[in-house]
Amino acid sequence: MNFSWMAWTLPTALFFITIALLLVGMGIWEYVSPGGNPRVGILRFETTRGDRLFVSLLGSAFIHLAWLGLGGGQDLWWALALSVVYAVGVFRYV
After folding, report:
1. What's the CA gap between 3 and 1, in Å, rounded?
2. In contact, 42 and 93? CB cutoff 8 Å
3. Is pLDDT of 34 > 90?
4. Contact 56, 87 (CB under 8 A)
């Protein structure tokens, strides 16, 4: 396959590899422990592990976009750290 149409840099590749590993990890977790223990968090509706993963990925995308837009794209490691803190919060409280 020819992937020359996309600017494959190391951060881009790591981004897609991380998302793939998260999906594989969630699939294995679901296989080992089916059901995901749905619970009602601060949003006041029932969420599963997959729902919380989706919300954390979507929120992380918005955090990075805001960081790029407001901060000029400097030092994205801080946006990554903020996204990890956000994801931990989502999995714990949502």
Report:
1. 6
2. yes
3. no
4. yes
